[in-house]
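New to this. Help decode the following:
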Amino acid sequence: MTAFDYVIIGSGSAGSALAYRLSESGKHSVLVLEYGGSDIGPFIQMPAALSYPMNMRRYDWGFKSEPEPHLGGRVLACPRGKVIGGSSSINGMVYVRGHAMDFDHWAEAGAEGWAYADVLPYFKRMEHWHSGGHGGDPEWRGTDGPLHVTRGPRDNPLFHAFVEAGAQAGYGVTEDYNGQRQEGFGPMEQTVWSGRRWSAANAYLRPALKRPNCQILHGLAQRVVIEEGRATGVELRQGGQTQIIRANREVIVAASAINSPKLLMLSGIGPAAHLAEHGVDVVADRPGVGQNLQDHLELYIQQACTRPITLYRYWNLISKGVIGARWLFTKTGLGASNQFESAAFLRSREDVAYPDIQYHFLPMAIRYDGTTAAEGHGFQAHVGPMRSKSRGAITLKSTDPDEAPRIAFNYMSHDEDWRDFRRCIRLTREIFGQAAFDPYRGQEIQPGAEVQSDDALDAFIREHAESAYHPCGTCRMGAADDPMAVVDPEARVIGVDRLRVADSSIFPRITNGNLNAPSIMTGEKTADHILGAGMLPRSNLQPA
């Protein structure tokens, strides 16, 4: 077949959810276009191996930022999944819905129908939540959705020390940050099930592909075909051959916050002057395409551990082999967790309306990408501000579909960014200084006890801040009369019929935490908009 009712570009978090829901009734034919290959293999499916796939060109697009002027000209990695399941197949498997006020802000910014009361039913529909008997109110969670959400075993005493230290410092505890109350210290949730990464591909795409009306086709989507103001198909290249895949009803772009705006611009949708510079015929002058780029930055605050209880004892080839073999044959043991098993969401100041700092705690001192381990036992907190005012942009380098776009985040371009990051460092020192860490606390590895002044902290931030890999916002959702909005509140591209965008690129503002969960929710909710069958009833639950 070369014609389908719905053609979805991208098999990632939102794209897989769309494929599942649009094909669910059996009434519509659905095609998913994916450039990447198979996600089968231990580097992806083994949770503890999470640092590998995002560093493998087989699975990652290999995007890099432009030199960042406020970070000393550093070039930062921007991993995006080039594989079945997209970035849900290479991410850290951390599950965070976001704060209720994030989505209320979306609605206030013009995304009518996307307030927390509107999106909570979709979070619940997608979840199969497993509390493990460790607290949380099931009224706030879904228990029969496709996406398994679990908690790690938290066997290492350092996970509990982190939560206890937060309580001792006066910041409170939450049993379920994805439930009624996000703020506080508590267990972290992960998309892991039966010892395997439970990606959007495992949760949504594979069940959808078992249906006769859903297929996947591998190739590079080069542009959306637009005729007389409406999307009619997708130009797809497979090897050296190019063909047009027709869409009888709609084309849905779900290609990531990097590739979705690039594809729109290559299709003639974007800032007219920028398109003209590259000789692209303008179909719809939408100046917001590629703008509003946002991300989370984070630091690794590392402390030496005086007891040999951290993951460093397994940082050798023999232990890694044993862990890998156990996981391969039983799907149990250390290989069956992402090791991010405790978390926190805090406010940087009392006058902040809701948490704006996130913590991931890890019982080892190591970079997220696994490239640099601190010598000896240690533990660390990944910490960073959640709502930076800094904005960047995605622009074309050329009209070659194979060439990556220009990615300029413009990190740390506001004074508040530096203030908030300094607060993150000092707050983490306060937490690590509590009595709960007395049995374990050695010297501070980084930034180092000598790094105290604002200038010294700023120098450390400039040199060591890293992306948390949460790009979003580049096809912002808003009111149809908003000149900077790219899609309306039903995810329809403004100015082009039968074309939608549904992924993290449509977020008006970045959410409070990791983006996999709200990206899947976006696919779930957009599917109902497309089908026109009515939205799920709004929730009347009141968050704390």
Remarks:
- The chain has a mean pLDDT of 96.
